[in-house]
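Appendix B. Raw example, untouched.
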Amino acid sequence: MSVYDEIEIEDMEWVEEDRTFYYPCPCGDRFEILLEDLLMGEEIARCPSCSLTIRIIYDEEFLAQYANLN
């Protein structure tokens, strides 16, 4: 799969209510990926308004701090 860019997860916005990470898309919308998808090994975030995707660069220790939030 061709991706638009690779983004460090630390550069993404975390919205706890949605349990989702967001990143601005050039089209004006936002790429999005659920924490649960990341925990299952998914690393591709999609923009709901266009066909662009990004690969998320992260490590398991970083995700653990979000997985433990209730």
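End of appendix B.
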